[in-house]
Amino acid sequence: MKPFHQLLKEQKTLVIPGVFNAASALLAKNAGFEALYLSGSGIATGCFGVPDLGITTLENVCEETRRITNVKALHATSLLVDADTGFGNEADAVKQLEKSGAAGIHLEDQVFPKRCGHRPGKEVISPEEMVLKIQNAIKARTNSDFFIIARVDSRNVIGFDDAIERAKKYQDAGADAIFAEALESKDEYKKFVDTLKIPVLANMTEFGKTPYLSVYEFESVGVRMVIFPLTAFRRMMKATEEVYRIIKKEGTQKPILNSMQSRDELYRLLNYYEAEEIIDKK
């Protein structure tokens, strides 16, 4: 596993797709990605079927983190994990997620229970309280390469100028990068980049406040990391919904066989054949 510091030295803009379980992480790794992202919303929705409203716990996130990082084929990838508001104890969150194999986390400056960063009704804590969270998180890590990102959520609550001022304070507190949440234009990202000395992360989520900007557009204004948190999950959910409707209507899966992952493709993804040979030799 490469530290995020190293990955950022090697790539102008690091693209980090969202994964929602170990199998999807393997698919992302095979597509060529070195860094992966595990979102709190993905865990809440995909694993527990509940809204992303602070319902899931630190242990829930750690368990899913371990499921991904324990897969031998994924040891070369670096996992960034959504730590929400710190689960009431940001120092413990750092310790537990570092122990679970995460390469880094992001903490947000929302009031608990948090909301999706692109939804109305969210509230933010004071920048001073967030500075303390960042400092506590930094003190708690045992590996200096463990990446701690501070997420700024005030753009749509108090305004752009407040978000910039918060980002500067979080930088001074020692954050390794700034997650500029729900910005509304490429120019706003450029202003963040131009103001700060540490990397800026953009969230290219769907159906939110941020316009659809390509990785190349983000790169042109100096954004160093771009996450696509639930893109694969949303596509998977839509496809799954279609499967169930077809089975209910047709009574057979024949119409969609050609759009399925084959048994052989799945087995190759999981290294099934190699594992089978080992069992047969025993």
Q: What's the domain count?
A: 2
| Overall outline | globular
**CATH architecture annotation name of the largest domain:** Alpha-Beta Barrel
Contiguous helical run count:
12
Description:
Strand 1 (14-19), helix 2 (22-30) and strand 2 (35-38) form a beta-alpha-beta unit. The longest helix is centred in the C-terminal third of the chain and has 20 residues, at 231-250. This protein starts with a helix and ends with a helix. It has two domains: 4-232, TIM Barrel; 237-281, no CATH class. It has an eight-stranded parallel beta barrel with strand order 1-2-3-4-5-6-7-8, surrounded by nine helices. The chain contains twelve helices and eight strands. Helix 5 (90-99) runs parallel beside helix 6 (127-140) and helix 7 packs parallel to helix 8. The protein is globular and about 60 Å long. 45% of the residues lie in helices and 13% in strands. By secondary structure, it is of the alpha/beta class. The chain has helices spanning 4-10, 22-30, 40-48, 58-69, 90-99, 127-140, 160-172, 186-195, 215-220, 231-250, 263-269, 272-281; strands at residues 14-19, 35-38, 78-82, 104-108, 147-152, 177-180, 200-203, 225-228.
Task: Provide the fold topology.
Layout: H1 4-10, E1 14-19, H2 22-30, E2 35-38, H3 40-48, H4 58-69, E3 78-82, H5 90-99, E4 104-108, H6 127-140, E5 147-152, H7 160-172, E6 177-180, H8 186-195, E7 200-203, H9 215-220, E8 225-228, H10 231-250, H11 263-269, H12 272-281
